[in-house]
Amino acid sequence: MFTGIVQGKARIRSIEKLEGLWRLQVVFPSDQSATSCGASVAVNGACLTVTAINSAELAFDVMQETLRITTLGQLNEGDWVNFEHAARIGDEIGGHLLSGHVHGVATVAAVTNTPNNTNIAFTVPEPLRAYIFHKGYIGVNGASLTVGHLTPDGFSVDLIPETLRMTTFGELADAADASQRAEVNLEIDSQTQVIVDTVERILRQKAGLG
Question: Which of 23, 62, 57, 24 is closest to 46 using CA atoms?
Answer without folding.
Answer: 62
